[in-house]
Amino acid sequence: MTSRATPFLCCAAMACLSLASIALAGPTTAPDVKGDPYLLDTCPVSGQKLGSMGDPVVQTIDGREVRFCCGGCVGRFEANTAKYFAAMDKAIATQQMPFYPLKTCVVSGESLVVKGKDIGVNHVYKNRLVRLCCKGCIRELNAEPAGFLKNLDAAVIKAQSADYPLQHCVVLEGSKLGSRGDPVEIVVANRLVKFCCPRCRPKFEQDPAAYLVRLDKAWKPIHAAHGDHDGPGHGKDHDGPGHGHDGHDHDGG
């Protein structure tokens, strides 16, 4: 009897140890998602052109990259982050709107156009525009962002590949895409970006805003020809009234 009980006791002990380990580790959390770079060309506090007062001051605030014209603006921003993030988010949404690939909510899959009217909610997640149908979807996105953003990346690539306006690398302008093997593709702030080789990606990431000027300029006539929305007034900001379909939340709150 003793010999039969021993394996059972060992298994029970191991199970208890496993449960204890889980308890000590605490609740699981969503994996951290790296945010997009700050791509506005002005300081969010002073409105001055970045670079007009020397190299921009780069800070990470609440998990988001922010660039300032000078060190003095950092403290002012941190003293009222809600105010400055709200203004920053509106500018980011306007800048990224022409590149946004979906007319459905990335979380629920529901249409963002009802009876010909755009009812989408503009939410900026770590410097990236994400369009949703309601406030309930904002909470779902913030809780588990990785999967939703991966799906958004795939939609960007699908939507922008056919009309991609540059035949050469966004970093090495003289290097034709495909001349050094298959182009390297990434998605930055809802834009598909192509490089001639892997070595160009680190150069791009040092100052993405500078390299994206040429890409954004090349897209403008294509957006104009397609009649893509490229200005404010499309969708709602996430802090305004009447979000989504009759203002409902998916979770009933």
Give the strand content.
5-15%
Total number of β-strand segments? 9
**CA radius of gyration:** 23 Å
Number of helices: 7
Number of domains: 1
Secondary structure layout:
Layout: H1 2-25, E1 57-61, E2 64-68, H2 72-79, H3 81-96, E3 113-114, E4 117-118, E5 121-125, E6 128-132, H4 135-143, H5 145-160, E7 184-188, E8 191-195, H6 200-206, H7 208-226, E9 236-237
Parallel strand pairs: 5-9
Antiparallel strand pairs: 1-2, 3-4, 5-6, 7-8
Structure description:
29% of the residues are buried. The chain is built from 7 helices and 9 strands; from the N terminus they run αββααββββααββααβ. It has one domain (57-247). It has a 3-stranded mixed sheet with strand order 6-5-9. It has a two-stranded antiparallel ribbon with strand order 1-2. It has helices spanning 2-25, 72-79, 81-96, 135-143, 145-160, 200-206, 208-226, and strands spanning 57-61, 64-68, 113-114, 117-118, 121-125, 128-132, 184-188, 191-195, 236-237. Residues 7-30, 230-234 and 239-248 have low confidence and may be disordered. β7 and β8 (191-195) form a beta hairpin. With 253 residues, the chain is an alpha+beta fold. It is globular and about 50 Å long.
